[in-house]
Design goal:
- With about 240 residues, this protein is an alpha+beta fold.
- The chain has 3 domains: about 55 residues, Structural Genomics Hypothetical 15.5 Kd Protein In mrcA-pckA Intergenic Region, Chain A, CATH 3.10.290.10; about 90 residues, Alpha-Beta Plaits (2-Layer Sandwich); about 80 residues, Alpha-L RNA-binding motif (Alpha-Beta Plaits), CATH 3.30.70.
- It is built from 6 helices and 17 strands.
- Strands 7, 8, 9, 10, 13, 14, 15, 16 and 17 form a 9-stranded mixed β-sheet that branches. The protein has a 4-stranded antiparallel β-sheet with strand order 3-2-5-6, with no helix packed on it. The chain has a two-stranded antiparallel ribbon with strand order 1-4.
- Strand 5 and strand 6 form a beta hairpin.
- Helix 1 packs across helix 2.
- The chain is elongated and about 70 Å long.
- The model has no long low-confidence stretch (mean pLDDT about 90).
- One of its GO terms (cellular component) is cytosol.
- This is Pseudouridine synthase.
- One of its GO terms (molecular function) is rRNA pseudouridine synthase activity.
């Protein structure tokens, strides 16, 4: 038996959180009866319908997209702006982004229709690392880099320990390139961390998520993950080993 919201997510209808909203709003029936209770469990023999349409289990799909700047990390937008799922119109399964990258941030984002996979990548307890490369204003000192590594206070609380590496600097243009690896997923965290140490971000790109990298992808291009990569990500999140 599995929780109803998980069954809906695994069918590719919606993320688990959205599935919970569908249940609360009375848009889900089990064996012909409307269900609004969260956490109810169903079996493979139960008939589950969402908006009157029976569920059919989709094959799980996993993708890495090089998100360009100026694209929303969402499945839709009421202002008709471009979203990451626009790049997957030819895919029959409904995939959705795992977590978010800011509108003005480019780089690696994962899309899938596997709710369990998405959950382990996003859940704080699994501490999956994400690596960013930032162009910042000014030239950070060694002390500043140490601050980023030890954690800085943003939104009233200190960030977890991170890895920070000064890559290059241009005193004439008063800018530098810094690599930062974090495992938290707080709102606008990387930008806020650099702002907190006095070096506002001018340009930001996510280079790596767990063991996944962009490779030779260009902005707007994507590739499907191999079975081995998916297993590696599960292992990395749950055991800390690739």
């Amino acid at each position: 038996m599995e929780r109803l919201q998980k069954v809906i997510a695994n069918a590719g209808i919606a993320s688990r959180r959205k599935a919970e909203e569908l249940i609360t709003n009375g848009r889900v029936t089990v064996n012909g009866k409307t269900v609004r209770e969260q956490g109810i469990k169903v079996t493979g023999s139960d008939k589950v319908e969402v908006n009157g349409v029976p569920l059919s289990k989709e094959e799980h799909r996993y993708f890495v997209l090089y998100k360009p700047r100026g694209v929303l990390s969402a499945s839709s937008d009421d202002k008709k702006r471009k979203v990451v799922t626009d790049y997957f119109d030819m895919i029959p399964e409904r995939v959705y982004p795992v977590g978010r990258l800011d509108y003005d941030t480019s780089g690696l984002i994962v899309l899938t229709n596997d709710g369990d996979f998405a959950n382990i990548l996003m859940h704080p307890k699994y501490k999956v690392e994400k690596t960013y490369v930032a162009r910042v204003k000014g030239i950070p000192t060694r002390e500043t880099i140490k601050q980023l590594q030890d954690g800085v206070r943003i939104d009233g609380r200190k960030t977890a320990k991170a890895r920070a590496h000064f890559m290059s600097g241009d005193k004439g243009k008063d800018k530098a390139i810094v690599e930062l690896t974090i495992h938290e997923g707080r709102n606008h965290q990387v930008r806020k961390m650099f702002e907190a140490v006095g070096h506002p971000v001018q340009k930001l790109k996510r280079e790596q998520y767990g063991m996944l990298v962009l490779g030779n992808l260009a902005p707007g291009e994507w590739r499907e993950l191999s079975v081995h990569e998916v297993k590696q990500m599960y292992a990395l999140a749950t055991t800390g080993k690739k």
